[in-house]
Amino acid sequence: MIQPNENNGLSHGRIATIEGMALGMVIEGSVANGVEVRLDPGVSVEQIKVGTFVTLQGTNNRFFGVVTDVGLGSTDPRMKFTPLPADDPFVIQALQGTVAFGTISVLPQLTLPDVLGDEQGPTAAKSIPSHFSRAFTASQEDVETVFGSEEDGNFWIGSPLDMETKLCLDLGELVKRSIGVFGKSGTGKTFLTRLLLAGILQSGQASSLIFDMHSEYGWQGQDTDKGVTVKGLKQLFGSKVSTFTLDEEHSRRRGLSTDETVHLGFNHIEPEDVELLRESLNLSEVAASAAYNLREKFGEDNWLKDFLDAGKNGSLLELAEELQVNAGALRALYNRMGRFTRHGFMVEHSRVDTAAQMIEHLERGQHVVLEFGRYGDDEAAYILVSNLLTRRIHRKYVEAKESAMGGAGKEPRPLVIVIEEAHKFLNSAVASQTIFGIIARELRKYNVTLMVIDQRPSGIDSEVLSQVGTRFSCLLDNERDIDAVLSGTSGGRALRSVLSRLEAKQQALVFGHALPLPVVVRIREYGPTFYETIQGNETEEEKKRKVDELFA
Amino acid sequence: MTAPSMDRRVGEVVESTSTSFVAQCYQLEGAPALGGLVRTDSPDIYGVVGSVTTEPLDSARPVLARGQDADSEEDVIRDNPQLARLLTSRFEVYIAGHVDDGVTHQYLPPRPPRVHSFVYACDSEEISNFTTSLDLLRLLLNSGASHSDEIVGACIRQAVSSHDRPDDFLALACRTLAVELSADVARLNSILRRISP
Question: What predicted TM-score, i.e. pTM, was given to this entire model?
């Protein structure tokens, strides 16, 4: 009887991780399509999953790749027409692994250094291993060589498929370019984002500004599946995080004392904002562009207030005639803006520059969460506020960066701006106008990057999407969304099959700038254990910092 | 090779070709079983019994039925003592390997056994030693015999009992067959069913 080799680890239902397990040998392939590995008898296809890491030991090089497909092969093409005794275990076992065998397609992505721990890191694979090279599952050491280890200051986000190995991300690299977190509703985008933010906060690589649409990141969030509350950033990091709110009452009800309450003056709203809100407010193009005429007439600071006053006094018709715009359009603009400006956070004139306050906090190395409270459901409010604040902050960053380049100041601290429902800001109709579109395109020139969270990536302008450096994609099933997420990625076709087979929870395909190769990650649990590691580390660091400060 | 015991001597080579030889038995009906491993002396050549024939010595004198009035088959033999002299058993052996300088090779020897070489049935130890590798299956499968599948099946069935670890041997046999017959699953299946325990 053919016995599977007891030592291959398969008998335990989990692939051994310390030592790579022998899988099979390379039988054909090409650089473009990857190599085909025939599995050894005793290795069942059922235990190899798409997305698993594999090393290929060639004659002179060792390759690191990922399983992109799993298949069944046969040496005899007539086998499928030959009646075989399916109920005779002896015959079936004898055929398995010999004339009927499993195959895996492996895309070699990297060439590993000959000696582990060598100075020289992995490099992109430009060739493939020769015929009959042996394939192994990647060992813990291999994974650490490729992705870095926690000891080297990288952030542990989860484990690769079927491995207990800690998979780490280089957060410094991550925040250098924009980040995208995609996935359909309920796949764990929020948890993943919380985890990433906690990592960024802990590492201190960048400040972050979070436009918290549903009040999930600041104080505490809900795990709707388990029916428990999870800790937010403020609870984990205390004074490192400042919370701003648009809706003080809402925050108070939730037992959260916020650092600042945001009020926006009419004087802060610009015609560009109105343009951006066209879709949400259902304004015609003519109506939106009337705002520019109004600004010309009343001046930058007062145009909205004067316009609303004129509307109240019933002099809209004259105004329309004077500006030579359609009276109906102007009335529509008046109605919509009037309704909009009745929100609690809008005031006629605000001397407090919220953006400046935020920058102050950010400059101090703090992280800012802006809670929207009940306005979170008001799309227009979310778009307006985040756009308005970001524009100001971005302007300050540009100034700071430019003076730093001129040698007059210090480099501004890297900033990550987190926005949800990103397709509303970055769809092709408005991406060219919103500040987020500009940030996404300008990239890291001014040390400001975006973290976009969205469930409909197909709605995001393709030019903007192509600038998203590192993408985290949870399960997506809409064809167009999958296309959008994978656009501009090499090997997109192979990743497609991986992406559409992700589990609905806690799994994400991560690829792009911060990683040497795409990887499916079982996201680490965001819960008590995680809090402990975060807070434990923080107190140590804090202590050290305080001691350093004392004796500096 | 040590001197084989006389009691395992089953016959003598009477016809010989590069791939097979025919041996005549010393005893009527004394041929080894189909698929059994046999060996000739000087030179040491191993082979697998592919067919057994019992026929009249003189082909011009066909055997006639004689037992119409007898009570049992034994009576027929007893009443016709001349039969043992008029009939003979022969068996055809497909060459499966040879020993050269003490090393066993499972491919054809440079020369077939000489006529009149003695033929011995192998004992358990010899069988298990010779069948640690199974390249002989390829020789048998390609022997050209119309019933080569039967010979292979019988050979494996007989060899299994000689091994200390029959399961391992059977696994090796299956793997070897699968490699040899990778392009003919139907034939592979039919042999596998013959050796299924």
Answer: 0.69
